[in-house]
């Protein structure tokens, strides 16, 4: 499944469509609570605090050292920058992403692997996601990690536009000593039903 927006955003959009979301829902995730705000068609998420763990982690691949900065948003990410958008289109996202995702440097959790380029004040991003084990059309926490690294490296402002692989943009706002905020849209591309027996034995939330 190729997703265009982070899973909490997709869930928030579904809850709103189903009439189950209040004015300001709060989603509990394994990475922490994610407050949600709806601004028209835009979904605004307040993500868990971001931590820059390591910089310039060298990974050797096919005769070249690639350097990654490691960021924890409750979800592990690494980010590397290439020269420009043209170089990003040619980046070996799947092959190198697969190599880095399971590299001993990032054991035991592994990581999502982000390739970014700064051009015209915007970040362009491609992401190899663990779990999916492929490139996805967009990754909200990956966009956030890339902005955190770009702010440190290039002095970008608090609010940054990130153009994802799908061609659509998300906006990351990250000020010092504040949780990052992610704004973007969600697209319904499929529907389904939950088989009743999958719910057997589950207790309602208290």
Could you describe the 3D structure shown?
With 206 residues, the chain is an alpha+beta fold. The chain has a domain at 51-178: Diaminopimelate Epimerase, Chain A, domain 1, CATH 3.10.310. It contains 4 helices and 12 strands, in the order αββββββααβββαβββ. The protein has helices at 7-17, 85-90, 93-101, 140-154, and strands spanning 26-29, 32-39, 42-46, 51-61, 64-72, 76-81, 112-119, 122-129, 134-136, 159-163, 169-173, 181-184. Strands 1, 2, 3, 4, 5, 6, 7, 8, 9, 10, 11 and 12 form a 12-stranded mixed beta sheet that branches. Residues 1-5 have low confidence and may be disordered.
Topology:
Elements: H1 7-17, E1 26-29, E2 32-39, E3 42-46, E4 51-61, E5 64-72, E6 76-81, H2 85-90, H3 93-101, E7 112-119, E8 122-129, E9 134-136, H4 140-154, E10 159-163, E11 169-173, E12 181-184
Parallel strand pairs: 6-7, 8-10
Antiparallel strand pairs: 1-2, 2-3, 3-12, 4-5, 5-6, 7-8, 8-9, 10-11, 11-12
Concise synopsis of the structure shown:
This protein is an alpha+beta fold and 206 residues long. It is built from four helices and twelve strands.
Notable features of this structure?
206 residues, alpha+beta, Diaminopimelate Epimerase, Chain A, domain 1, twelve-stranded mixed sheet, 20% helix, 37% strand
What is the fourth-level CATH superfamily of the domain at 51-178?
Answer: Diaminopimelate Epimerase, Chain A, domain 1
Radius of gyration (CA) equals: 17 Å
Strand/helix succession: HEEEEEEHHEEEHEEE
Helix content: 10-25%
Helix/strand/pairing class, anyone? alpha+beta
